Amino acid sequence: xxxxxxxxxxxxxxxxxxxDHGMATPDPELPKLTEGNTTPISVLKSxxxxxxxxxxxxxxxxxxxxxxxxxxxxxSSSQFEPYFALADIKRVSRMDNRYxxxxxxxxxxxxxxxxxxxxxxxxxxxxxxxxxxxxxxAQENVTDQAEAPPSSSDSVxxxxxxxxxxxxGSVSPNTTASLGREELxxxxxxxxxxxxxxxxxxxxxxxxxxxxAFSKNDEDxxxxxxxxxxxxxxxxxxxxxxxxxxxxxRDLKHGETILIEQPILCTTHFSFxxxxxxxxxxxxxxxLALHSPDGPDGIDGIVRVNSFQIPGGVALFQVASRFNHACxxxxxxxxxxxxxxxxxxxxxxxxxxxxxxxxxxxxGSNPFELxxxxxxxxxxxxxVPLTRREVDRFHTQAYNxx
Length: 402
Ligand SMILES: C[S@@+](CC[C@H](N)C(=O)[O-])C[C@H]1O[C@@H](n2cnc3c(N)ncnc32)[C@H](O)[C@@H]1O
Hints:
- This protein is of the alpha+beta class and 402 residues long.
- Strands 4-5-10-7-6 form a five-stranded mixed sheet, with no helix packed on it. Strands 1-21-22-16 form a four-stranded antiparallel sheet, with no helix packed on it. A four-stranded mixed sheet has the order 13-14-24-20, with no helix packed on it.
- A hairpin with a 2-residue loop joins strand 4 and strand 5.
- The protein binds S-adenosylmethionine (SAM).
- S-adenosylmethionine binds next to strand 14, helix 7 and strand 20.
- InterPro entries: SET_dom, SET_dom_sf, SET_domain_protein.
- This is SET domain-containing protein.
- It comes from Lasiosphaeria miniovina.
């Protein structure tokens, strides 16, 4: 397993253990931690790890990625690098061990030496905050992540948190370790107003309701919410865009979560071959039944056109991978990967979708990019389709490059 794989695995496992939140919905307005008054101190990885992650992490051109408005869902592995930064956030209020900040970008947060960008949830940027560790300068904190002693502020026993699953630093076995983690939600006031899951209390602070409980074994857990059934929202059937697609079975309204699905396979473009053969026969059959592009690529082609980027790799889904693409004016569904639940979630991002309409996500920002990555000429009706001449020119240019 590469360092990148190990890291991303630990990230996911860590989130499962520590958080009810963790929607990794990407956002093209990702605040750069170098903006404003923020002083970046470093990233977690050592130089060697970084080199390796560069070599092994997939590029954004290999899987679905959106990059448009605030509802964009561009999944980029780089966004999940552990950004550690000296940062402050103004006007923060503490609620149930979590922080809600009303300003963005991140500016100043006096009690922390590191902020870890976890992902997004309902358009809210979710961070984990590590309080300042005594007797260590900022630089030492970064370079000595692995050796840094746990602080005593937030005790978690190492039985709860195996060392290998802690992306914030190692935890010695058989000791009481403190992860000193807090969760932080950063939200601008404008988007709060459109977020159905948030409300503002009398003090002006935003409150965010937790996601409904979800686990693969919903039926086994009495405390969980009822299983989320996508069939209550849409059906999969032939699409005029080609092959199969998803169609609303009733009127759907903005913000409705229509799909929560765990992947059949999480992999990388480099390890797909071996990962595929570790699957059960049923899962392999489900992958082979997904849309297969023309050409000689075989299984590689199936992964290329059906996978979603997730932290550290790509994932294939039985249902989510059936959604067709539409460009910005026509797309009506946004998606994000919920790291905590290892689940892809789709929700409606337009005012209303009438019963019978096709539900469409955005794979890429323009028809040229779609052709280059996925090999199809977009016919969504919301873009100017590529002409035959443009396609020919693309092939000529590609031929000249290679
Ligand atoms: C992930 S699959 C989507 C589901 C697929 N239609 C199926 O039958 O499983 C992606 C493929 O669907 C087709 N497709 C999706 N959106 C399209 C669009 N807007 N215009 C034309 N073809 C599209 C392309 O062949 C693309 O490679």
